[in-house]
Amino acid sequence: MKVNFTDILTSSVSEHGISQEEILSSEKTLEKVKKSINEKRDKLYFPLNLPTLMESETKEIKEYAASIRDSFDNLVVVGMGGSILGNELLHFALKGTHANLENEKKVYFIDNIDPETNLTLLENLNLKKTFFNIITKSGSTSETLLNMLLIKDLMEKKNINFEKQVLFTTDPNKGFLRKLSQELNVKAYPVHPDVGGRYSVLSHVGLFSAAFENIDIEKLLEGAKERDKHFQENKVLDESSLVFPLVQHKFFKEHKVNINVLFSYSDGLEYMGKWYEQLLAESIGKKFSISNEVVHSGITPVVARGPYHQHSTLQLFMEGPYDKLIIFLVPNSFKKDYQIHEEFKNEPAVTFLENNTYSKLLLSEYTATKMALTEYKRPNISIEIKEINEEEIGNLIYFFEVSVIALGELFNINPIDQPSVEVGKRITHALMGDKNYFDVLADIKKKEEKDKFLLS
Ligand code: PA5
């Protein structure tokens, strides 16, 4: 993996960039950040230990996944937010966006509660041949539990034993799902109490569904460990997972760049963008600093896919406000490619495409977009990987996790918690008639009395 920072420098994008001297003068700051991350590794930043900790678990996960694969044709993963985004990232990046057309064993995701979507999936799957992995760390996320109730109901209506076709992944001791696993005698993988959803992809949360579809989970962990080794051994100014957050933070502070676009030139890697979207947003978007000052920190992530978004949002990135840092994510080669044959002679619209490989246009468009943005003084970074494989993806996951934690250190906020996600959850309980939330309901009624502004 190579991270190219050239086009954030003033020498590339003049007054919209930052100088090399500024980066060099931040050595002490980065050393402090690295020290602090290492000091907090055993508690607050515990997820950084997952690649090593999970090594002893992979054998069991692989054996169990193989036994499920022998008996079932489909795996449906059910979860919300951090309890499913990593599974989707591994599936789409490593198996491809149309993997279910190609592979004998199919993997599906239920990551929302739109009744039309979920009933369409569940009514069309052969439930007798389908295994479910219900993932909720807290064991109390309403959407995940609603989906579980739906699945259980549909199975029981067909006289299928739900308990025999489900795996739970949840807190080792607490929560409804843990209790239910004991009552129903359902296998339940643990989510370590110090591993929050968005940092859990390299735990049982992400590894079981990956192993089910023959993703090499050992290589995935190897890739992550490789990045950790880099992080530990490299000098701070040579370590991209530290220079990257430094740059994000400098652009935010000095140029008011509060939007980061993760622009992937690969359909599968777009899901790395969707996973990173949550990681960056939930980790850095905070009202209070560690020292309890009101800071309202945050960088807004935007997920884009090339060349698709060249035809929708690129115009804005090129000519709109100077409030964006573009981060390209690009594989240098593809597992599948095609040599286009000569078909039309002297047709300017197509002859330049003929006798070229299919991927050449994609990669040329990436280079062209990068050059065009730089010409328009739009700061951009390129993360390039040789090809999409388990080691590279493991490395990238760890790179983004450690860089977000470092960014949290630079903002002086806690990148691990998400205190305000709870507010909406409480109101939902009240609106659904949950007696335990009567006080919230009274508050809602009061708020409904305010002035209205409605149009049709
Ligand atoms: O990153 C997070 O902590 C959240 O996105 C959670 O993963 C999400 O809210 C689901 O929580 P749970 O795993 O408890 O169902």
Structure description:
With 456 residues, this protein is of the alpha/beta class. The protein is 48% helix and 13% strand. It contains 20 helices and 12 strands. It has a 5-stranded mixed sheet with strand order 1-12-11-7-10, with helices on both faces. The protein has a 5-stranded parallel sheet with strand order 3-2-4-5-6, sandwiched between helices. α5 crosses α11, α6 runs antiparallel to α14 and α13 (240-255) packs across α18. It is globular and about 65 Å long. Bound molecules: 5-phosphoarabinonic acid. 5-phosphoarabinonic acid (PA5) is lined by residues 80-83, 136-138, 141, 144, 196-198, 282, 418. 5-phosphoarabinonic acid binds next to loops.
SSE blueprint:
Elements: E1 2-4, H1 10-13, H2 20-24, H3 27-39, H4 50-53, H5 58-71, E2 74-78, H6 85-95, H7 99-102, E3 106-110, H8 115-124, E4 130-135, H9 142-157, E5 166-170, H10 176-184, E6 188-190, H11 204-212, H12 217-233, H13 240-255, E7 259-264, H14 270-284, E8 286-288, E9 294-297, E10 300-305, H15 314-319, E11 324-331, H16 348-351, H17 358-375, E12 380-385, H18 390-411, H19 421-431, H20 438-448
Parallel strand pairs: 2-3, 2-4, 4-5, 5-6, 7-10, 7-11, 11-12
Antiparallel strand pairs: 1-12, 8-9
Bound molecules: 5-phosphoarabinonic acid (PA5).
5-phosphoarabinonic acid binds next to loops.
From the spread of the alpha carbons, the general shape counts as globular
The distinct ligands, each listed once, are:
5-phosphoarabinonic acid
Helix content: 40-55%
Question: What is the residue-mean pLDDT, rounded to a whole number?
Answer: 95
Number of strands: 12
User: How many whole angstroms does the radius of gyration measure?
Assistant: 24 Å
Low-confidence runs of at least 5 consecutive residues: none
